[in-house]
Amino acid sequence: MPYKNKDDDNDSALRRGLERSAKVRDIGPPPECENKRLRKKVESCPEEFLRVLWPELFRWQFSPDQRKGIFQLDEITERGGLQAIADPRGTGKTQRVIRQALKAILTGKRRYVCIVSATEKAAKKIIKSIRTIVCYSAKLQGLFPAELHGFKQLKGQNRLAGGQLCVGMPTEIGVAADQIVFPMIPGSKCAGAIISSCSITGNVRGQFHTLSDGAVIRPDLVIVDDPQTKESAKSRTQTEDRLEIIEGDVLGLAGPDTPIACVVLCTVIKTDDMSDRILKEVKWHGRRTKVIVEWPTNTKAWEEYFDHFDEAISQGKPQRINALYRKRRKELDAGCVVGWKSRIETGDVSAIQTAMHIWHRMGATAFAAECQNEPVRPDAASSLITSTELLTRINSLPRGEVPLKAEHITAAIDVQGELLYWTICWWMRGFGGGILDYGAFPDQGRNYFALSEANPTLQHATKRTAKMAAVRAGLDTLISRLMSRVFVRPDKLPMRVERLCVDANWGESTDHVYDACRESPFAQLLRPTHGKGFSVRERPMSQWKAQAGETAGFHWFKRVGKRAIRYLVKDSNFWKTFVHNGLLLQPEEPHSISLFHAMPHEHRLLADHLTSEVRHRPKTEDGRTVDQFVLIPGRENHWLDTLVDCAVGASELGVTLRETPIPTQPARKGPIEPTYY
Fold first, then answer.
1. Alpha carbon of 543 to those of 486, 555, 578, 665: distances in Å?
2. Partners of 84 in the β-ladder
3. Is residue 660 exposed (0-12), middle (13-18) or buried (19+ Cβ within 10 Å)?
């Protein structure tokens, strides 16, 4: 009997065990396509891909807008480019996104699709939905057998993916919480392809995948699905952050040498939110869709209808309302055109009735945003400039450069506990002017920030622990810096700040502001300022009479109080209207106020400050209109206050709306040389 080595027996047993394990893990070759003709049909037509494979989900006929959006996404998948589409809430865009991402992968048009959502929860929900489809959709597996071979065996569990084989070769399949990796199957159009999902505030930059051969693939199609929440839409800081992520991180996902294909599907929540701003960008080719394209002409009939509707609902007899609608349908429907004629909610008679029910249920304001993608401005009748419009009021002058027509320079400081906001302006005859420079002390080192996020703060910059001590130290430093700056006109005339207004309205800081102004070497040029708003019951400042020692100006008064320094009291609401009227004008127009030349995004925070308040115009008993400005919740207005004070300072220096200033002293022969301190 030949001798048997015990190690040989162990090796044989191990080999047999590995062979049995491989046989169990091997899923075999993929089956043949069940219907090649149908596959060709759904591959070539994105609408058929949705309707054939998911008839229960897309049971209604697509609207013209939906159909156009479906084909636009398919076209972007084919050729690349950027597209932004605003669809009304509840029109199924997320479900279409999920399936069209799948189509891009299964047909081999794209190798790596990344879906970006507003939150981490929404991102995981999308991947879970895709995992369910690829693992359990028998119809999809029948048409794309090679592409989906191996998902059925996983049963949605990633722990079974590691050792999966196909004809002896690893499939490298994966179904993780944040991505789906398609198997390496012979004959598959999407071997090794990826679908991933992440939140817009999450790991956007980390979207890449390393293949078994060491090659790295990055997203070549990004679908941004509803990238904002109601909370983020209300926050200017969050809006700016998300826009920067899309413009920088998202559009840079493909790498430096690959053109990105990106589609943003969104809904506008409020004016100038992230979606609204993207849709206005030319490069995104923005398109807005609506629930109601043309409104009914007989509004009186609908008012009567909803009176009966509310009564019927309260009585628990909703069937009565349909009888009324059928009876008066012709006059109710007159002039109305809806975007989606197939959208008829259960129990309703027509799409118009459904649309009007949604309008009644949501209210006009919410409906305008969520369903029309045209949110109502907080005070549409106020004729104030918007943040986006303001970014077009940019002149040709670089930062800090004054034009030849400039005659005066003023500056202003708004005092806050953590920061000091400042602005410098130039002014000419006729009260035209422009912002020369602006900023915060200490400097924040970024274009967009909120006061609550200040870093460094005054305490850090001045090394003072007590808040008011830091404010005083900061004022001393900033006043010296602003008053020491020299600006040179094109004719070589040097100019300095002739009036610096410092806000003294904040109760905690009032005494410190007065002390800083009084003790400064530039005291004669400094003015603590107080703003006053007027109610409809109060006598306007224009009717005030100057008392002894006071100077009455154009909606301001100059006084000398117990603190032994001259200070200004202004009609805040009048001057805010005055400034807004100047900003509404184009830079080349008389009386306009413009911004120095810079890229629009560099002025975004300034624009948000200058448009942070809405104006109401109540009437007095005698019919007079009173302007009242109210800060929009969540917004900041510090640079608005400084621009207003710059204008008030210019008025005190003699700048008027007249082209020729009113003389304040007898004319004398010869040129008058300006005095600078």
1. 39, 9, 18, 25
2. 264
3. exposed
Concatenated DSSP letters for 453-489? Answer: G-SS-HHHHHT-SSHHHHHHHHHHHHHHHHHH--EE-
Distance CA 175, CA 188 (A): 18
Tokens 């693939």 belong to which residue? Answer: 217
368 in Cβ contact with 375 (< 8 Å): yes
d(CA 140, CA 433): 65
pLDDT, residue 17, reads: 54
Q: Show the tokens assigned to 378.
A: 């907080």
pLDDT over 70 for what percent of the chain?
A: 92
Structure tokens given for 640: 């608005």
The whole-angstrom distance between residue 30's C-alpha and the CA centroid of its chain comes to 47
Contact between 65 and 371 (Cβ < 8 Å): no
> What is the residue type of 264?
V
**What is the distance between the alpha carbons of residues 423 and 411, in angstroms, rounded to a whole number?**
6
C-alpha dist (Å) from residue 391 to 261, 388, 409, 576:
28, 5, 23, 18
pLDDT of 193 strictly over 50: yes
| DSSP bridge partners of 420 | 415, 441
Region 648-657: mean pLDDT is 94
Q: Which amino acid is at 92?
A: G
How many other β-carbons are positioned within 10 Å of the β-carbon of residue 572?
24
Distance CA 303, CA 414 (A): 49
In this predicted model, what pLDDT tens digit does every residue of 2-57 receive, in sequence order?
555 555 555 665 566 555 655 668 888 999 999 999 999 999 999 999 999 999 99
Q: Which two tokens stand for residue 628?
A: 């009242």
> Are the CB atoms for 229 and 191 separated by under 8 Å?
no
- Least Cα distance to 373 among 241, 297, 279, 296 occurs for 279
**Backbone torsions φ then ψ of 452, nearest 5 degrees:** -65, -15
> Residue 153 corresponds to which tokens in the numbers above?
């065996």
Strands (DSSP E) contained in 302-418 are 337-338, 408-415
Alpha carbon distance 310, 317 (integer Å): 10
Q: What is the Cα–Cα distance from 509 to 515, expressed in whole angstroms?
A: 10
